[in-house]
Design goal:
- Mean pLDDT is 86; it is low at 350-363.
- The longest helix is centred in the middle third of the chain and has 33 residues, at 201-233.
- With 393 residues, the protein is an alpha+beta fold.
- The protein has 16 helices and five strands.
């Protein structure tokens, strides 16, 4: 039986669009349970047979685009997507009741959507851009899933063609550090680049133009070196992984200002990171052994070597930095050599970038522990939405 026989073509198209989106996403993300989201829309179909036009109050564009951000960019699965949809249909537009959500799912899921509403309301009231505001947002969200959906909403808003300056200001100074602490580095970088574009367009364009001139060749060479080192070092030195990155225009500009130097004088725009396994008392020796192996393959710039293992930074950051000259782009590639233990400290502990590369310092131990647990959960191959307890527990 076709439940749409008496309904408008617009409503038919509305649900067809939603279900087609879910079907396409399921093909790309077979590890996730899309039925939990479908269940909501099947119920909405049933509940609104008598008054189908009410559903048309809600534009499908933000529903789908925000869900895409959660699934394709943040890779957090369908549970946050469900919270996002319940927020729109049950909380914001009251098209499905609290009782029905409780029957379909649970009261806990409904309450998460209510927390999302409260967190969304905080955004419009932000006046000061400091750690207390960050703490307030995290406390109000009180759940990793809620915080992730909230960040996705902020990202969606910042991608609109017309956006107020204060929207970007909040993204850059409040949500950027939170996103970074959760390991969502690409989102933080996007907001930083958008902010520099907005506040210093000429500088952003100049740095981006210089980067674009060398990036294709530099990245190609970086990948080649990474692959070569993997073949040479992996088995011999218990290498956990070798990764590479290219600095963003905003990060390059910040470094130029901090070091009072020019673009062509920087030697960490392109970087490799070699992470190895060994005992703590053997880390220094192993790092230098790997360095000397690299030296045999590539003529390294000894004058630039930085030994942060023997002389860690004040925040605990430890790594051996070496530099490989790249004649193709006439710049150096930075090589960071560190143990798995050092890497954990650098990325998740006291030496994390959100502490030593910005003014947004640690909020307090309770929140640091929660954020570290959240980041650990997100870095697993399949995100478990129930792995992180609320802050109030």
């Amino acid at each position: 039986m076709n439940i749409y026989t008496k309904e408008s073509k617009e409503v038919k198209k509305y649900f067809e669009k939603i279900f087609l989106f879910l079907e396409n996403e399921e093909k790309k993300n077979i590890q996730y349970d899309f039925d939990i989201v479908r269940q909501l829309f099947i119920s909405l179909q049933s509940f609104h047979k008598k008054d189908p036009t009410r559903i048309l109050q809600i534009n499908t564009t933000p529903i789908i685009e925000i869900a895409k951000i959660l699934l394709e960019e943040m890779h957090v699965g369908t549970f946050p997507v469900l919270i996002h949809c319940i927020y729109f249909y049950a909380i914001k537009y009251s098209l499905i009741s609290k009782k029905n959500i409780q029957i379909l799912y649970s009261l806990d899921i409904y309450n998460m959507s209510k927390k999302l509403e409260k967190t969304q309301n905080i955004t419009s009231q932000i006046i000061e851009y400091n750690k207390d505001t960050q703490k307030n947002i995290i406390t109000t969200a009180d759940n990793l899933n809620v915080l992730l959906v909230h960040i996705a909403y902020i990202l969606y808003d910042t991608r609109k063609k017309e956006k107020p300056k204060n929207t970007m200001q909040k993204a850059k100074f409040i949500y950027g550090p939170i996103a970074y602490r959760l390991g969502l580095e690409d989102i933080k970088t996007e907001w930083e680049d958008q902010w520099l574009t907005l506040t210093n367009t000429r500088t952003y364009r100049a740095v981006k133009q210089k980067l674009q001139k060398i990036k294709p060749k530099g990245l190609k060479e970086l990948k080649k070196i990474s692959h070569h080192l993997q073949q040479k070092l992996y088995k011999k030195y218990k290498i956990q992984k070798i990764e590479y990155r290219v600095k963003s225009p905003t990060s390059i500009w910040a470094k130029m200002q901090a070091k009072e130097t020019q673009f062509h004088e920087l030697y960490d725009i392109f970087a490799l990171r070699i992470i190895f396994h060994t005992e703590k008392n053997n880390e220094h020796k192993m790092a230098w052994t790997i360095y000397h192996e690299i030296e045999k393959i590539y003529l390294t710039e000894k004058k630039h070597v930085k030994n942060f293992i023997e002389n860690p930074k004040l925040n605990g950051y430890a790594s051996l930095h070496a530099y490989i000259p790249c004649t193709i782009i006439k710049m150096d590639f930075e090589v960071q050599i560190r143990s798995f233990r050092m890497h954990n400290i650098a990325e998740k502990g006291t030496a994390a970038h959100w502490q030593y590369k910005s003014n947004h310092l640690s909020i307090d131990k309770k929140y640091d522990t929660w954020m570290s647990s959240a980041r650990n959960s997100l870095t697993k191959s399949i995100f478990n939405p129930f792995a992180i307890h609320s802050l109030s527990h």
